[in-house]
Automatic annotation (TrEMBL):
CRISPR (clustered regularly interspaced short palindromic repeat), is an adaptive immune system that provides protection against mobile genetic elements (viruses, transposable elements and conjugative plasmids). CRISPR clusters contain spacers, sequences complementary to antecedent mobile elements, and target invading nucleic acids. CRISPR clusters are transcribed and processed into CRISPR RNA (crRNA). Acts as a dsDNA endonuclease. Involved in the integration of spacer DNA into the CRISPR cassette. The lineage of its organism: Bacteria, Bacillati, Actinomycetota, Actinomycetes, Bifidobacteriales. This is CRISPR-associated endonuclease Cas1. Residues 1-66 are annotated as: Disordered. InterPro entries: Cas1, Cas1_I-E, CRISPR-assoc_Cas1, CRISPR-assoc_Cas1_C, CRISPR-assoc_Cas1_ECOLI, CRISPR-assoc_Cas1_N. Pfam families: Cas_Cas1 (PF01867). Keywords: Antiviral defense, DNA-binding, Endonuclease, Hydrolase, Magnesium, Manganese, Metal-binding, Nuclease. Mn(2+) binds at E201, H268, D281. One of its GO terms (molecular function) is metal ion binding. One of its GO terms (biological process) is maintenance of CRISPR repeat elements. Its cofactor is Mg(2+); Mn(2+). PANTHER family: CRISPR-ASSOCIATED ENDONUCLEASE CAS1 (PTHR34353:SF3), CRISPR-ASSOCIATED ENDONUCLEASE CAS1 1 (PTHR34353). Belongs to the CRISPR-associated endonuclease Cas1 family.
């Protein structure tokens, strides 16, 4: 099983996984090198220890407690595999294809994107779930996405806060305005209606497209894509679709890890990933759009694979996951106002005092 020397020395030169039904020349081994490029120096130094500890444990080892899990901010952004078999070995994940097998430390994963031709065992899904990673099944050429994730907290504090804010017109509008304010840093949008905000946002996005078209020399007309046929779009539209899919996956992972609902959106509504789209839209202009244009300008043979590679680098460089976690908490309320999000308790709702203790009998009241 061979590796790429350039990948070992530079994250930017790291190779990509096998894509589009074709095996990578160096198989999944190269994918492992590419994915580990997201880790900081401390994480890289601990990778062997994590792997050794995982192998030392038996499959019957109790799942880790939430307090033992790696925070979402400190995990790998995402890894993508297709046409392979994902299994469990002790408390690690193994990924195998015709070129060989690699081990992944499940505790360090945030998003595992699984493309066409991927088989996953029950035990692999078990260890992924126990370690709080999000699994995304990506359709052919990245067109569709089906996600599963587990919170990295026992608390429902942020979820209740989210539900409360989205259920009141005034508070929902306030959060939506804060989302737009994050995109218009030098302007005051606190007095604008949702209709006005949508108009301003539409004009801003068109300007972003024109800007990167001029800077990269990539021709731009308009955003068009076919959900049913990825290859029908232009190269830049395919690049944008692939980049946005990566961003949606990361946003979904962070939202679920914090214990929030992907479906309770403030700007978007009516879809199971409304809040995912809300959060992802905050970063498109500085992340997925420029990455898509810059990648399209390079005219790679496989635009989807190249975009995922460049997105992974950009996510790392921008410290996106820690920013995203902080931004979500800020949008739902100042962190100082929130009770301990790591608290592990179950109470009973009371219409007068809010909450009473669970686990006791109230039969004599």
């Amino acid at each position: 099983m061979s590796t790429n020397d350039d990948a070992l020395g530079s994250r930017a030169a790291a190779p990509v996984f096998g894509e589009a039904g074709q095996a990578s020349p160096n198989g999944v081994a190269e994918g492992m090198v590419e994915g580990l490029g997201d880790m900081n120096s401390e994480d890289k130094g601990n990778t062997g220890q994590v792997r050794s500890r995982a192998r030392a444990k038996s499959s019957g080892t109790p799942p880790p407690e939430l307090g033992e899990l790696v925070r979402v901010e400190d995990r790998l952004s995402f890894l993508y595999f297709e046409h392979c078999i994902v299994k469990r070995e002790d408390n690690a994940i193994t990924v195998s294809d015709s070129e060989g097998t690699i081990h992944l430390p499940a505790a360090n994963l945030s998003v595992l994107m699984l493309g066409p031709g991927t088989d996953v065992t029950h035990q692999a899904m078990t260890v992924i779930g126990e370690n709080g990673a999000t699994v995304i099944w990506v359709g052919e050429r990245g067109v569709r996405m089906y996600a599963f994730g587990k919170p990295l907290t026992h608390s429902s504090i942020l979820l209740q806060r989210q539900a409360s804010l989205v259920s009141n017109v005034r508070s929902r509008l306030a959060v939506a305005r804060r989302m737009y304010q994050m995109r218009f840093l030098n302007e005051d949008v606190s007095h604008l209606t949702m209709q006005q905000l949508r108009g301003r946002e539409g004009a801003r996005v068109r300007q972003v497209y024109r800007r990167y078209s001029q800077e990269t020399g990539v021709e731009w007309d308009k955003r068009t894509y076919d959900h049913e046929d990825f290859d029908q779009g232009s190269e830049i539209n395919k690049a944008l679709s692939a980049a946005h899919t990566c961003l949606y996956g990361i946003a979904h992972s962070v939202i679920v890890a914090l214990g929030c609902s992907p479906g309770l959106g403030f700007v978007h509504v009516g879809h199971e990933r409304s809040f995912v789209y809300d959060i992802a839209d905050l970063y498109k202009a500085e992340l997925s759009i420029p990455v898509a244009f810059e990648t399209a300008a390079q005219m790679p043979e496989d635009i989807g694979s190249a975009v995922r590679h460049n997105m992974r680098d950009a996510v790392y460089d921008l410290s996106l996951m820690s920013r995203m976690a902080k931004d979500i908490k800020d949008l739902l309320g100042e962190e100082a106002e929130l009770p301990d999000a790591d608290a592990d308790h179950v109470g009973l709702w009371d219409d007068k005092v809010g909450e009473v203790a669970a686990g006791k009998s109230y039969g004599n009241e």
